[in-house]
Amino acid sequence: MKKAIGIDIGGTKIAVGIISDSGELLERAEVKSDSSDREKMFDRVVEAVDQVLEKSSLSIVDIEGIGVGVPGKVDREKGIAVFQSNLPWQQFPITARLQERFGTERITIDNDVYMAAYAEWIAAQVKRAETFVYVTISTGISCSIIHKSLFFRGAGFAGELGLIPVLSEGVNERLEKIAAGPGIQKLAEKGLKVDTLSTKDVFTGYLNGVREYQPIIEKMTEHLAQGLYTISCLLDPHRMVFGGSVIVNNPFLLALIKEKLKIYQIPEQQHLLAQMSISTLAQNNGIIGAGLRVFEGME
Questions:
Q1: Full residue range of the structural domain in which residue 173 is found
Q2: CA angle, 93 then 94 then 96, to 5°
Q3: Are residues 274 and 152 in the same domain?
Q4: Residue 123: alpha-carbon gap to chain centroid
Q5: 220-253 pLDDT, tens digit each
Q6: Digit-coded pLDDT (tens) for 71-101
Q7: CATH of the domain at 235
Q8: If exposure means fewest CB atoms within 10 Å of the residue's CB, which of 193, 198, 218, 221 is most exposed?
């Protein structure tokens, strides 16, 4: 059994796993990010890799390679983290630095959502000729498209679903601003006229039937339905899988989103409703996808 290291880097945490060539997560470690400085951030990545190797009783020589998912724009060929909104790594040579630190030649980097999408595509056993879309709803909103077994990348920034404008109370707002975790929190604070209220409190209140929370979730799912209808119209995908903490931790949202999406769709588009599901890999899809990409070399 061959093994690889998968790294999922975020502004809040760094998750690392030992992944088998069949996609099994053999060991996992997680450390907090330190985005105050580019070198401190890299040190945290090294710390996470060291931890997972120690927990698994493996050495780096037992590893086939390292896959890395980084937020924002990356240059895969040069191994550079080009731009991120939540990390201090503009033009950071992540591949060269990892090779220098661990002596591992085979390193694959990509956008973190693409890495997660690859794991979901494998898990869903999508037919090679089909179009698959992975949507993540968390601190931000984004998606990745796999068409006929290849990523659709456009000019390098395809899949930024969160930037799409949707209509909210008569004004066009970017979807991410009003339907991702922080956006939900702001909607709730504004609607309930309170200073601080966590996103988790909003979902708990909704599930407990508290009347004041109902319109917040209704608005949020309506906004998501508008954004997803754009995908439905442009791509008409065969399958769509959702990940990210907002929807994975609140699976009831999927039924509400489907209900609202159906209103927009014409009958010829509604086949998608039966093919929308929530990730079964939860918060591990990023590290599993990154590890698997070491073996697959998918472009």
A1: 125-279
A2: 70
A3: yes
A4: 15
A5: 999 999 999 999 999 999 999 999 999 999 999 9
A6: 988 999 999 999 988 899 999 999 999 999 9
A7: 3.30.420.40
A8: 193
For residues 203 and 112, membership in a common domain is answered with: no
pLDDT tens digits, residue range 252-298?
999 999 999 999 999 999 999 999 999 999 889 999 999 999 998 54
Give me the torsion for CA of 265, 162, 142, 87, rounded to 10°.
180
> Do residue 32 and residue 156 come from a single domain?
no
Q: What is the pLDDT of residue 298?
A: 43
217 and 138 both lie in a single domain? yes
Number of domains in the chain: 2
- Tally the C-alpha atoms within 13 A of residue 226's C-alpha that lie toward its C-beta: 19
Distance CA 174, CA 168 (A): 9
**Which pair of tokens denotes residue 86?**
């939540």
Do 113 and 150 sit in the same domain of this protein? Answer: no
Tell whether 129 and 224 lie within a shared domain: yes
Half-sphere exposure of 222 (CA within 13 A, CB side): 10
